[in-house]
């Protein structure tokens, strides 16, 4: 019973903190088009604890669809030279800058919000991943280039703390060579 209460309490905290996160007011879907570099990653997910030191930067190719959805293709070069790839189609919602998608790889439901975007510089993305009774927060910081200024990095760090991520689970990923085009 105590474990159940702890799990429910943690889930409620995640949902309470994350329900306050809203997408950027003047979100422009077309502005998201193109290549982005994954620079920052923050999550309260348990799996991240053992993997955070091995993660490296990757790329995302974002392509708006004619229906207002967002095709997302991710790639990261593994140490053995192979590429880890993931594709998802994020469906638009009634709120501009907010999308939902089912992970093609893990089958979990995701609510994604474009929280803060400077289309030629960076994008701060907040996602709530729901799988069974274990919702998790995932914040990602993307850049148009491989480097972002210290103010943007600090903005991401502060946002992640405000959304319930512990400081040790906020990382700025080491640079990595890119995967060849698929």
Provide structural commentary.
This protein is an alpha+beta fold and 182 residues long. The chain is built from three helices and nine strands, in the order H-E-H-E-E-E-E-E-E-E-H-E. The chain has helices at residues 2-19, 47-51, 150-162, and strands spanning 34-43, 59-64, 70-77, 83-92, 98-102, 109-118, 122-130, 136-143, 170-172. An eight-stranded antiparallel β-barrel has the order 1-2-3-4-5-6-7-8. A hairpin with a 5-residue loop joins strand 3 (70-77) and strand 4 (83-92). The longest helix has 18 residues, at 2-19. The radius of gyration is 16 Å and the shape is globular. The protein starts with a helix and ends in a 10-residue tail after the last strand. The relative contact order is 0.23.
Biggest beta sheet summary:
8 strands, antiparallel, barrel
Provide the structure class: alpha+beta
Rg from Cα: 16 Å
Relative helix content: 10-25%
Tally of separate helices: 3
Brief summary of the model shown:
This protein is α+β, with helices and mostly antiparallel strands. The protein contains 3 helices and 9 strands, in the order αβαβββββββαβ.
């Amino acid at each position: 019973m105590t474990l159940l209460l702890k799990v429910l309490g943690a889930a409620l905290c995640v949902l309470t903190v994350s329900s306050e996160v809203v997408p950027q007011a003047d979100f422009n879907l077309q502005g998201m088009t193109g290549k982005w570099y994954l620079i920052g990653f923050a999550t309260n997910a348990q799996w991240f604890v053992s993997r955070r030191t091995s993660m490296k930067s990757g790329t995302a190719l974002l392509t708006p669809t004619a229906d207002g959805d967002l095709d997302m293709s991710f790639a990261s070069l593994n140490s053995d030279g192979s590429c880890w790839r993931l594709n998802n189609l994020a469906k638009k919602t009634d709120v501009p800058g907010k999308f939902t998608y089912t992970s093609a790889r893990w089958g979990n439901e995701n609510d994604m919000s474009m929280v803060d975007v400077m289309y030629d510089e960076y994008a701060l993305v907040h996602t709530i991943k729901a799988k069974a009774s274990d919702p998790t927060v995932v914040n990602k910081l993307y850049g148009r280039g491989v480097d972002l200024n210290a103010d943007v990095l600090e903005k991401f760090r502060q946002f992640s703390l405000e959304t319930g991520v512990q400081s040790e689970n906020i990382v700025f990923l080491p640079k990595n060579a890119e995967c060849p085009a698929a």
